Amino acid sequence: MRTYRYFLLLFWVGQPYPTFSTPLSKRTSGFPAKKRALELSGNSKNELNRSKRSWMWNQFFLLEEYTGSDYQYVGKLHSDQDRGDGSLKYILSGDGAGDLFIINENTGDIQATKRLDREEKPVYILRAQAINRRTGRPVEPESEFIIKIHDINDNEPIFTKDVYTATVPEMSDVGTFVVQVTATDADDPTYGNSAKVVYSILQGQPYFSVESETGIIKTALLNMDRENREQYQVVIQAKDMGGQMGGLSGTTTVNITLTDVNDNPPRFPQSTYQFKTPESSPPGTPIGRIKASDADMGENAEIEYSITEGEGLDMFDVVTDQETQEGVITVKKLLDFEKKKVYTLKVEASNPHVEPRFLYLGPFKDAATVRIMVEDVDEPPVFSKLAYILQIREDAQINTTIGSVTAQDPDAARNPVKYSVDRHTDMDRIFNIDSGNGSIFTSKLLDRETLLWHNITVIATEINNPKQSSRVPLYIKVLDVNDNAPEFAEFYETFVCEKAKADQLIQTLRAIDKDDPYSGHQFSFSLAPEAASGSNFTIQDNKDNTAGILTRKNGYNRHEMSTYLLPVVISDNDYPVQSSTGTVTVRVCACDHHGNMQSCHAEALIHPTGLSTGALVAILLCIVTLLGKLLLPASYLPMLRGTHCYCDTLDLSASPIKAYSPI
Predict the structure, then answer these.
(1) Lower CB density within 10 Å: C or N end of the chain?
(2) DSSP string, 107-127
(3) What are the residue boundaries of the Cadherin domain, all occurrences included (predicted)?
(4) ∠ CA 620-625-626, rounded to 5°
(5) 423 pLDDT band (50/70/90 cuts)?
């Protein structure tokens, strides 16, 4: 017959902090009035083998933060095998066993030796066992139970930050979000109100408020103006126990800064400004500075200046100095004291970044009057033109007047001026000027073909103050006169085939002329009069400033005449007519049936003396001609004009001697 033993774990309620146990499946909210026992079933005769076990352990609660001088009593462990004779020994193991929790091995009494803090460790898991003291064998299996530390309100709420920093735009509506603060409570949030935190504002009213449950801080006052007050320090309290009396609390500081919005227009501190500037101030010269004040800051305080109206609207300009936000008034065009001495301007200052919701406050701009007085300075003479252009014919005689320049002192004194030529621009002293009236005249002859334009500089200087001078460029164009004869564009030397036909074109002629007539070049070509009759060639004028050389007969014999010299007269069509004579060399050559030149050398007829008959004749003709020129009087020389004699170098190696004819 099977026997049953009972293992009892007993907990008594102690003072002043009671302990109690409850089933795991059921939690009680009160303390038990009497001890509770847990019955354990087991077999007899200290056998460990069990056919059936049914364990039902309790969960035990122990109040934290025990402040008594004695150990805190937890409970009593008891087995039904214990007959009080000391044969059993109770053993405790698990979390804190032997240190935090101790057991009387004879009586089974369990005590806590130290002050417990739920926030450090809320639950302890322990194991209890009864063994035979003599044999050391367990009389019951080891069993586990739990001690849960019961929370008390011993932790105040702590904010996540000691100091919060936040910003909110000025002039914000009531209820505008500023920042959210958060406090945490280390107490058990599942038990009572120890960890239920409520927020309240201790400092910062009536400007700000805080939501009690969320910690969200909002604006509470309308039209808070940064220009009146920028910084606010708000103190927020977080209190547990739902804010009830006796709850613990903590505080934090929130530093709130109002950020700027553009709610202030620029304003000039004065309505009128006055400046002076010399009339000699070049464009871009700063005259003075004006500044409109703006209570805003940063981008909202940026100012743009502009001239909206006034007499000097086109004479002056105003720009914004981005660093100082000042309006810098500058000269836009050259000033003239003699024309206008005082200018009045209206300058406007405005904000480029405007918030529409503040337009009801009025226009975000202001205007001021600026008077600018022009001061007289001694100015250099001023020419009547920025540059002068004159013309003169190239055949002009020395001291011919070309034109004149005029300059005068612009000052009221009207000091007299004198004129001179900057010789660095007229190194050859081709021109001169009358120092009194500014007349320009030539001092040397001109040649258009040498230099078409002369660029010189004229200086005007005040007689009473030589330091005051000015310069002006003078451009002189030399006009063309027909003083150059046309001439061949190149040296012409051509050939004619021995079997050439009459009226065959053998060469096209072109001419050039250094002159530049207004109607363009019109050249005419012809043979020189002395060669016109009996010539073997003719000139055909093409009427397009070109001419062609044509054969006049059929066939040429290079043995009889190897070279012809054609004098060609070239005339222009301008006034006075200019002409020149150019010579074209025509060689007689042997050609193939296509007209391509093959050989232009004459085959020499060799005499015993080594000279051909043609060579001898040519030499004799040259000698006679030269003697005639030397011996005849000068009055007979024109008769020999057009007669030419050419003597080729004699080749000692019996090379053929070439014969030449003027036509």
Answers:
(1) N
(2) T-EEEE-S---TTT-SEEEEE
(3) 79-159, 160-268, 269-383, 384-488, 488-610
(4) 100
(5) very high
